[in-house]
Every structure is written in C-alpha cells, then in structure tokens.
Amino acid sequence: MSVKTVRLTMAQAVARFLSRQMTVIDGEKLPIFAGVWAIFGHGNVSGMGEALYGVRDELPTYRAHNEQGMTHAAIAYAKAMFRRRMMACTTSIGPGALNMVTAAAVAHVNRLPLLLLPGDVFANRLPDPVLQQVEDFGDGTISANDAFKSVSRYFDRITRPEQIIPALRRAMQVLTDPAECGPVTLALCQDVQAEAYDYPESFFEEKVWTFRRPRADVDEIAAAVETLKAAKKPVIIAGGGVLYSQATEDLKAFAEKYGVPVLETQAGKSTLPHTHPLAMGSVGVTGTSASNDLAMQTDVVFAVGTRMQDFTTGSWALFRNPEMKIVALNTQAFDAGKHNAVPVVGDAKIGLADIDAQLSGWSAPSAWTEEAKAGKAKWQEASDAVRAPSNTELPSDAQVIGAVQRTLTSAATVVCAAGGLPGELHKLWESGAPGSYHLEYGFSCMGYEVAGGLGVKLAKPDEEVVVMVGDGSYMMLNSELATSVMLGKDARITVVLLDNRGYGCINRLQMETGGANFNNLLEDSKYEVFPNIDFAAHARSMGAITTKVSSIADLEAELEKAKTNDRTTVIVIDTHPLIATEAGGHWWDVAVPEVSDRKEVQDARKAYEEHLKHQRIG
Ligand SMILES: Cc1ncc(C[n+]2csc(CCOP(=O)(O)OP(=O)(O)O)c2C)c(N)n1
Ligand SMILES: [Mg+2]
Q1: Strands (DSSP E) along 1-97, which ranges?
Q2: Minimum-distance ligand to the CA of 510?
C-alpha cells in the first residue's frame, strides 16, 4: 500500500494538524483553535517555536508574560465561546510547564476545553539531567509534567514522533465532547519535537468538528417526567451546562410554559436575562432571598447542566423539604447521578425538548409561581438599596457594582473569579445576554481576572469587557495586563480594582468561624513597613491608562471615559473590607475547630453543629 506522506518534525506535525481543525459557527467555517499562547524556553523554542512560526498565518501565536496567566486567557476564551472554539498553550519544560498546572485545574473543574503542550525531558535521556529536569530516584518515567495527570482529562507523553497521530486524535475527541470536555496535556519530549517522521498526508486533511448532542434514554426521560408531574413546588437550577448547550432559549420557554422559577448557579448566571419575571437570580451560599426561599421549600429540583457544588446547595443544607427529589439533566453521568437524583444523561437542549414533549398538561401551581414573583420583587428592593449611589468615604463592593452596572449596563460582560466580589456579583449583577456574566467560580482561582478578561475580549472584540478584581487577586497575577496593552484595541479591557487592603472575604470568614483577625488584612499581618501599594502607578507602568478615584460619582465618570479609551484602562478605588451584602445568602460548611481556648471559636462551633443538622446526606 502506498500512502502519500510528508516528512515533518513532530512539532511541525502538531502545528499543522492544529491549524487544520475547523468548526462552524453561525454558518461560518472557522479554525477551532483561535491561536496558541506561548512562552518559549529550551524545551520548546526550537521545536514548537519553529513549527508555530511556520503556521503563523493560519494559527497565530501570542506571547504572554506568565504561563498561568496565558492559560487563564485561553480558558476564558473557550468559556466565552461556549466551548465551541478554544486555544492551545505551549511552554518549556520545568517551571514554565508547571506554571500551567493550576490553570489546568481551572479548566478541569470548570469543564472547559484547553490544549496544553508543555515541553518535556529528552526521550533519549542522553543529556540527563537537563536544565530544569526533576530527577526521581526510583522511577525513570517521571518528569515534572506528571503533575498534570490529576488535572487533565487526557494526558500523554510523546516519546516518538508517530505517537502524535493517535494522541492528537484522542485530544480532539476530549476537547469537543460535551461530557468529557476538559484540559488535555500532551507533554512533548524536547528531542522528539525536533525528530522527523513521514506522516500520512491524510492526517493533515481539514476536519470540521461539530458538537454532538447526546439524547437521553427514553426510560430516564419517562422517570423525569413522572417526578416533575408530581411536583407542587418545582424549581429549575440552571448551571453552566445550559449555556454550553446553548439551550438558554429552550430553558426560558420551558420555564414560561410550566411556570417554573429559575435559580442560577455561578456558571449558569445569565441563562435568563435579569429582567425575566421567572429569573430568581443566584442560588445558594451567595443566593438571592428570592431563590433561597424557594429552594428551602421545593419538592422537585430540576437541575440542568450543574455540578451541584457546595455554593449551589448551601453545602447540602439549603433544601429543607424532606421529600425533595432532584431530576438532574446533564451530559455527564457523574453529575446526573449525584445525590440520588433521577438521572437524565444527555444534552440540555434535546433533554428539555424530550421532557417537554411528555409534560404537557402539567404546570406548577400558580400560587407557587406567584410566590416566586413576589419574592423577586422583595429581593429587588434589597438589591437596589445596597447598590444605590453613595458618597461614603469607603464604599462597599455592592456600591461599586452599582456604579459599574449603571455606566456599562447589562450589555457589558463582567469578569471575576475570587474574593468577596464573586458573591456580591452573583447576588447583585443584573445580567443581560447569555455569557455576559463570566465568573470562574469552579476553582475560584485568584489571578484569573485580568488574564481572563483578556481571553474574553479576544472572544468578543466588539463588546465591552469589564474585569472586577480585588487587590489580593490583582497582586497574585496581573502581568497579562501588559499583554492586553500590547495587543491593542481588540484586547482593550476595563479593569475596576477594589482595594480593601487585604484578603477581605477570608478575613470575614475568619471572623464568622470565631477566628481572631489574623494574617488576612494587611493591617492584621506581620509587617515592618505598612504596604501602601500604588496600584494605579503599577498598572500605568505596564502601559494601561489608569486613575485612582475617591468616590462612586468619580468612578462612574471614569468608567464613562474609559469607554472611548483605545487601550486597557485600570480604575482603582479604595473600598471597605468588612461590608458584605447581608440580604440573601446561606450558610456554607467551613469546619470550625472542636477544641479551642477562644470563646468565639467555641460559640462558632456550637452554631456550626446546629447548621450541620440540616445537611442532607447524599
Ligand atoms: C490562588 C488562590 N489562592 C488562595 C485563594 C483563597 N482565597 C480566596 S479569596 C482570597 C482573598 C482575595 O483577596 P482580594 O482579591 O483582595 O478580594 P477580597 O477578599 O478583599 O474581596 C483568598 C486568599 C484562592 N481562591 N486562590
Ligand atoms: Mg482585598
């Protein structure tokens, strides 16, 4: 058999293959990989570096400043694209590679597609140990990249050039499968990147990926219908899977037809626009009173596309109806079966249609739907009150959110990940179109925000992207600010930096669990010289347009100006570290010490044990 072949290095084969993978969005054929983020070192500069140069017109390479940061940008891009397009990241071996491990976990937890291509040690082992090689005394197969195994959906180490053929095919399966979706790590041995092989030309044929919608089993649909039909107080909990399935219109129609209120997780927020009468907003630990009052009473939770993480379930103490049942529609059986749910394993869009086809005739009692609407009106008053303009010296996060929302409106996409802000945004941000609320709250990784905002902007160059970030998170990872400046107008973001001089939310958590104020706010930490960090100057040094404002009114004026800036803008505002929105919310299981000399801890432990009594055992 004579197969037409082309002689390439392994790295050239990787680059060429990636550039030929396509998808179709709104009738337009586009490369599924929008680009490759790269920081070169000896482990990838000559192999992958040279190969990426060769395909730079079809597959652009972006130079970043920190491997974790660039990977956050890649993840945010895929999330903003509802997993339909994605990016790859390549690094050297050792520190460059391991800087991506935390970000790999972000993609893993959030079920987002991400292709990681770290360099690896020499497969031939001749120059061992090379610079940055970790040496295991008992296992010669271990390299630093083994650390990716626990945070990758698929991991392989490429020790021969032809091995890339099945490995890349498998990578594409994982990246495009709605249930398996997550990070893929292909660790590319440095010598093998440069090694040639006669690859079959067919390997590089253009391939168009579509995203399958698995249909749930008929018996599972029937069981779900039976459970829903018996419901007197049903709620829908909408998770990120609804957005990724692009089923928001279907879910809205379903909720309207049957009068079922919709509660949203962090990943699911923006499924319905805030203005929709059945949109109860956030649920759980950072939930609105509207959602949580319903959740406490509900007899059937219809969970669509959610992992039911502890912030959603109030550590499983939120649901107080002992008869409560869960119907869980999810592409991933692992999620659909949680807590003895009636599982419906399949795509959200198709599953909603199949359930709808058999549910006709049933609807939620109108008194229940009316109770939901009344609860929402009450919540709106509470939300308006905390977000209202104010001239207080140190505004709350909620007041800053109010200012951002008034000036940028629900048309902007808001990006956040860690600190006190995610809880406040979950409760208070009034989201617009699906995807306009972008929270990384699966891993809640400090340092996601600025780089994530850049990734979102690359996905939505024509839309306003506003990053809200605390001083702590900004300090942890801000260097992709320079990348966003460098990439110009299409990468222009607005960053609102809330400086409360420390880890405000953890300080509050410490106080709630009886702890002494210790090691969270800067003032409660060991210091010789109090750090007065000039964030505006710091951001300016990276090329951003910056200001520090001293009032909510000034913040609104600067946000208005930022809209016409041609470059990334950073606006800094000092905020109060102790104020969080009291309305809404729910207990969260954070274990309080059983033994302590402190009265505050003993009291907190007693309260903790009371809360545990409400916890539903799976
Ligand atoms: C990488 C990482 N380290 C630690 C944490 C734990 N953590 C969550 S929020 C937080 C403090 C965040 O501080 P800041 O960004 O200033 O927000 P604030 O709490 O003040 O609102 C910490 C330490 C985390 N989520 N991510
Ligand atoms: Mg802070």
Answers
A1: 5-9, 21-25, 28-31, 33-38, 61-63, 86-91
A2: 1
- Residue 93's nearest CA partner among 69, 114, 123 is 123
Q: Which atom of ligand 1 sits closest to the CA of residue 471?
A: 16
* 473 Cα nearest atom in ligand 1: 15
Measuring CA to CA, how many Å separate 513 from each of 506, 509, 604?
10, 6, 5
Report the pLDDT value the prediction gives residue 582, as an integer from 0 to 100. Answer: 97
Beta carbons of 373 and 256 less than 8 angstroms apart? no
Give the mutation target among 106, 311, 505, 524 for probing the ligand 1 site: most ligand atoms within 8 A of CB.
505
- pLDDT class of 1 with cuts at 50, 70, 90: low
Among the listed residues 183, 110, 181, 70, the one whose alpha carbon sits nearest the alpha carbon of residue 443: 110
Ligand 1: which residue has its CA nearest to atom 5? 446
- Residue among 473, 476, 578, 579 whose CB has most ligand 1 atoms within 8 A, to mutate: 473
Q: How many whole angstroms from its chain centre is CA 19?
A: 26
- If one counts every other C-beta atom within 10 angstroms of the C-beta of residue 344, the result is 27
The token pair that represents 527 in the structure block: 């210091």
pTM: 0.98
Asked whether 48 and 188 are in contact (CB, 8 A), the reply is yes
Does position 378 have pLDDT exceeding 70, yes or no?
Answer: yes
Which ligand gives the minimal distance to the CA of 470? 1
Taking the CA of residue 474 as reference, the ligand 1 atom at the shortest distance is 15
Q: pLDDT digits over 124-169, tens only?
A: 999 999 999 999 999 999 999 999 999 999 999 999 999 999 999 9
CA 282 to ligand 1 center in whole angstroms? 21
Range 142-148 contact pairs with CB under 8 angstroms and sequence separation of 24 or more = 143/93, 143/187, 144/93, 144/94, 144/97, 144/98, 145/93, 145/97, 145/118, 145/120, 145/185, 145/187, 147/98, 147/101, 148/97, 148/100, 148/101, 148/104, 148/116, 148/118, 148/183, 148/185, 148/187
- pLDDT of 360 reads 86
Which residues are registered as beta bridge partners of 143?
none
Ordered alpha helix ranges (H), 154-288 = 164-176, 190-193, 218-229, 240-244, 248-258
Instruction: Give the angle subtended at the CA of 172 by the CAs of 168 and 177, to the nearest 5°.
Output: 150
What atom of ligand 1 comes closest to residue 470's alpha carbon? 15
Q: Which atom of ligand 1 is nearest to the CA of 475?
A: 15
Question: Which residue, among 477, 531, 464, has the nearest Cα to 64 in the 3D structure?
Answer: 477
pLDDT band at 2 (very low <50, low <70, confident <90, very high): confident
441 alpha carbon – ligand 1 mean position (Å): 12
Q: Which residue has the CA at smallest separation from atom 9 of ligand 1?
A: 419
Rounded to the nearest whole angstrom, what is the distance from the C-alpha of residue 102 to the centroid of ligand 1? 15
What is the tens place of the pLDDT at every residue in 266-316? 999 999 999 999 999 999 999 999 999 999 999 999 999 999 999 999 999
Tell me which residues have their CB closer than 6 angstroms to ligand 1: 418-421, 444-447, 470-473, 476, 500, 503-506
Please tell me the chain's helix, strand, coil percentages from 3-state DSSP, rounded to the nearest 5: 40, 20, 40
Which residue from 227, 352, 377, 354 is spatially nearest to 290, judged by alpha carbons?
377
